[in-house]
Amino acid sequence: MTTQSHPIDTTAQTADTAARALADTAPAVRAKALVAVADALPAHADELVALGMEETGLAEARLRGELKRTAVQLRLFAETVVDGAYLDVRIDRADPDFALGPRPDVRSGNEPIGPVLNFAAGNFPFAFSVAGGDTAAALAAGNPVIVKAHPGHPRLAARTAALAAAALEGAGLPAGTLQLIEGVDEGVAMLKHPLIKAASFTGSLRGGRFLADIAAARPAPIPFYGELGSVNPVFATPAAIAARGPEFAAGLAASVGGSAGQLCTKPGLVFLPDDHGLDEAIAAAAAIGEHRMLDPRIAANYTERRAAILSAAGVRLIAPGTVRTDEDGQGWVTPTIAAVRLDVFRPHPDALLDECFGPITILVESPAGTDYAELLETLFEGELTVAVHRADGDDVAPLVRAAARRAGRVLFDGWPTGVAVTPAMRHGGPWPATTLGGTSVGTAAIARFVRAVAYQNAPDDALPPALLDANPWNVPQRIAPAGESTTWGDAIG
Prior knowledge:
This protein has helices at about 10-20, 25-45, 45-55, 60-85, 135-140, 155-170, 185-190, 205-215, 240-255, 280-285, 295-310, 340-345, 350-355, 370-380, 395-405; strands spanning about 90, 105-110, 115-120, 145-150, 180, 200, 225, 235, 270-275, 290, 315-320, 320-325, 330-335, 335-340, 360-365, 385-390, 405-410, 450-455, 475-480.
């Protein structure tokens, strides 16, 4: 494992050397290495969780659950590697009678992109950090990863990296497959290094945009996959509130207050009928114990943004919440839930539209007949999620179509916090939710760290194993045989 004392160039060179060896590593070897990490981290759960609690203030149950999620995520990507569908292998047989003239033998498949730089997240010290989803996806694709540790949990990052690197190398992957660097300047310098071929980031819009611009301004620009933030609007129909009002209130409070609201999927704006009658139920559900925020900087930013929201015209408090700063500058908070009428919010939405990272949400109380689809199209650009609460008989098709244009995940009768680690999951969305779209959760996340290469009339000894007719890796191959081009389209219509 590389430490801060090593020059950036040495770290990059080590990763580049590892990349050449990793590219030729069989899928079964990479998969076993990912499983080795998935075994190693939970084996040290007591040590790692204790470090996480001390450095982040997150609760033990939350951290243990997140560590389990991280291990499951690694195992999922191990299965993805062995399956091989992500390689998207296509083989066009040579065809002297091709419709446009003789066709050569053409074979293509995805190959590793090269060394990947991953900026670890502060609010998910396991699942989006050293051994989290971005790292798992890049390793699964056959790339070495350099992780820039988050300053909010440096000791946890160092210990996780040491355990993960040892597990990877013990399973047969080359030295330098996983390395760690620390410091803002070091991260920027590594992002500019010509041997880095892609980067990932989970964090603020401001920080992500700063890094994305650096990646784009390089002499050879690289893809920068940033997950930057989201308001995650929720829309509830009158019938849904009438049928499930108390359940809605409890779910809202739990989603806003969990982990002190420090989740990229926390619902920030909730549109619901103006006669919802849920003030008392929401206030009661939000009356939970205080929770420490991640660090003093985040607490200060939350305090400032919360004050601006509560001072905006027409905002009233339902659950006032609290903010307490201790002698170390750490912020301790409880959920704040406010409300504003749509006719007050709509003319001047800017004061309330920006994400507020912390346990606060705003109910936008809307009159009967409000066109939620039009509101979504008009007020929002790109979101990680849009949630729709409906009841049988509600026509929400226009809202759902609008949501699909604005978000990477559309969910029904639930809350966006809690992102399932499953093959079909999408955790991304149009700008400004992410910089380049894609997903950082689910098996499709691997697609960010590969690139397609085609080989024309190549001899077998020059082809990657996945493209050979013998198919030693036993991966799916989409084959276009000779002769089929003369019948293309005949069976359609």
